[in-house]
Amino acid sequence: MTPTHLPGQVAIPSLPAQTRDTPGPRSPLEHFNTAPADDLEPFLLTCLRSLRWAHRISAHRPYPTLDALLAASDEAAYDLTLGDLSEALAGESLPVLPESAYSAAHMALDAAHAAYEARFGHTFAICLDGVPPSEFADHLLAAIRSRLANDAEEERVVTAEELRRLARGRLVSRLRDAGNSATSHNGTAPGIGRGHPLR
Question: 58: domain CATH number?
């Protein structure tokens, strides 16, 4: 089963320049809150490839804080059905190992992942937030081998939790990247106008 990769770059859509009554540049979260729902969906789908999840996050705006957005993301992820999880998994792929990883590590990981896909019928989802890149290979191999011992229901629960963590981490990363970009001359929020894709 070949996973469909998430889009590499999707920006929160550009919004009209600020009015004179709006002090200072608008934050990425403010733009997130006010972007048209149809335009925001592609951005959300880079965080988790589930239409139900994306619709719920969009529909419950505005979020007063990033923590409120992340809480909503968690709640929406907990409510995903089996079909939603399958949809989300179709957009996942294994984390890329650093170039310094030994070829033996790549071969071992390929074999372990093939065994996982044969057992569970989908790609292996895992959140590696906080794991140093130099430890990716060992962490991935240990996790796959451990989870191969799960039955289908146990693995569904673990996979759903990993997808929840992935969505949360990607939201934080993309909004942080937007906030770290330079403010554009037309008054749009940092990193969110056209030409400032969120990565």
Answer: 1.10.3330.10
